[in-house]
Amino acid sequence: MDSVTPWLSFLSLALSHSFPRHFTSFLLVQSAVAVPSFARFLLLRMYALVPPFSGSNTTSASTITPLSLPLKRTVLFSLSMSSIAAFSVSLLLYSGYSDDMLELLLFALEDLRNSLKEQGSNLMIRYGCAENVIKELVKEVKATDVFIEEEVEYEMRQLIGVVKKTLETSSSLDWNLDIVMWRTPFYDVKNLKELPASYNDFKEQKLLPTSPLLPATLPVVETELDWGPLPTFSDLKEFIKEKLGKPEESWNLMKEMPAEVLLKENLSKSSETIPKSLNDKSIEQRRRDKSVFVTRKGDVVGGGTNTLLNALAAYLRYLEGTARDDWQEVHERLRNAETREGASFTSLFGPALCLGIISRRRVHYEAIKYEKERNAGFLSPFGYSAASVAAAADAVCSMEWFWLLALKSQVSNEGLYSIRIWRWRGHLIQYTVVGLEGPAILLVHGFGAFLEHYRDNINAIAEHGNHVWGITLLGFGQSEKPNIVYTELLWAEMLRDFIIEVVGEPVHLVGNSIGGYFVSIVASLWPSLVKSVILMNTAGNVIPEFSSHRFTSERQTSAAARLGAQLLLFYLRLNIRNTLKNFYPTKTNRADDWLINEMLRASYDPGVTVVLESIFSFDLSIPLNYLLEGYEEKVLILQGMKDPLLDSKAKLAMLKEHCTGLAIRELDAGHCPHDEQPQKVNSIVCEWVVAVERKLTANSYS
């Protein structure tokens, strides 16, 4: 991550053969040599141990040196009597990676192999089941300690659990094997359970980011090993295709076409061409071009760590101008990616940070170092002197905050539900699931809410024999709030990918408020993912004579939108209690302190004003009567008739007139009937799902 050490290393790719645990695991190892003063080490996540290492059951940040390796997961094994260093990196859900991400990975691996060769090392590649590959490696080198970095994503934590269980129960490992969890933090947080819930309170602690450490130097010796060839793009695609079944493969293809393209195609009834898939020839062309923008689209930075650092230097120095061609290219891409102030950094460098080609703390270190260079060694208390510095530093600090929140949710049981973490396009997303079998139901909250807004629905619906999923959308609750342009199509794509990558089967979609509009888009664009739709006081209009010319994909942020978002945030913080009580006209006590405090907490997260800006750019011009076409007898409207935001009677009248086959239930509630009248809503939802499932079963036999 931060620098490369001269280690003899090998890389092993292993993919689980069991759905849904599709992952790839990489292992790197230094050959054994008799050096009694050292311990042997296998490391999972590209970190080198600064020798000598005590071999105790805990490690501190000061004893671990991050390496410049393009893989983000690792486990370290320690052996006695000789020196060995090894890495095992598990890249979760290769099948979920876009072609661009796969190509970034290949460039990074190629750079890693070349760097290691220059230092007398090499990179080995193996395919197999992760836990078996790691077990055989431990057995081969007779490891006595295994150090595993703590992860936040649910699938990674499951993988780590499987690896630990395999190692602990293996009869072939007939010696004492210690498994130790460790991490190298961006901030030196002593106790995660005491992490403040509010970002404001966290900032008041004035914790300083840790600095990158110098690389360790370990002995290098020649060892005869079968290193294997670096995989090509075609190799990876074929490997994924082979491990996925036909349904999963076809579902993955859905993600290749953006919602905007698909929507325009449907509206115009014309045929849009899907972008061609990458091939090894196009990748090779990028290698020859020596560009830091190595993907097909050419809009993200890739390559090895040194390439990333060069691109970062160019990005930070945007205001200086340059005669260098490579820096001019970075500056041009920066301008194109600046869809809103500061958004270019996440757009250009986000994928590389996600893969671990460069670390968050290295980015922060370089940004602050350059800021000091500009200001005679000082940092101004009034902010950064360059917008590019602010964009980089703010982005990685925000990423770290949400990573800490995610990790805290995994080590403490403070919430209403057991929280899992899913990484979508590099961002951390919270979700939960209750129930082991039955029809899948996905609950989607409204603007400003989070999955716990279904606090009295998830368990109750699951108890009636359903598999219930709740998700906190990007930009809300404790899910990440990156500096991007938020649109209704972005959130629809997120729900699509969640169904494909996490749920893994068609769902009954339930949405409240703007969440209802999002699920309507999903139902319209990807009908094979949806069994039925339940809309509760949904956003969206009914337009009898809809014209496709109303839709526009242009989304521009403005100074007025930024000011409006800041004023709206200020107003909501002051008036949130009264505002919520208006949404609960029949049971104002449901707008309780817990709900208010959770919404206030989220309002102080970094990036919240960016999310609020989306209110001023939402395009709800695609009407519900268009989106719900083809769902006769598969749409249930639950309408709280005392909704203060709209005329419920008029809306229902329009829906009845222009949408055929709707089922409508009127409720004595406000804007959030599921939380105001949970028992009634739960009963209606369960009855609806049973009826739809019965019809689907009957149709399958007819």
TrEMBL record:
Any one Pfam family match given in the protein's UniProt record, by short name: Abhydrolase_1
Organism annotation: Gossypium arboreum (Tree cotton)
Keywords: Membrane, Transmembrane, Transmembrane helix
Protein name as it appears in the record: Photolyase/cryptochrome alpha/beta domain-containing protein
Residues annotated as domain Photolyase/cryptochrome alpha/beta: 1-181
Highest taxon in the source lineage: Eukaryota
Annotated TM spans: 75-94
PANTHER family in alphabetical order: DNA PHOTOLYASE
InterPro entries: AB_hydrolase_1 (IPR000073), AB_hydrolase_fold (IPR029058), Crypto/Photolyase_N_sf (IPR036155), DNA_photolyase_N (IPR006050), Rossmann-like_a/b/a_fold (IPR014729)
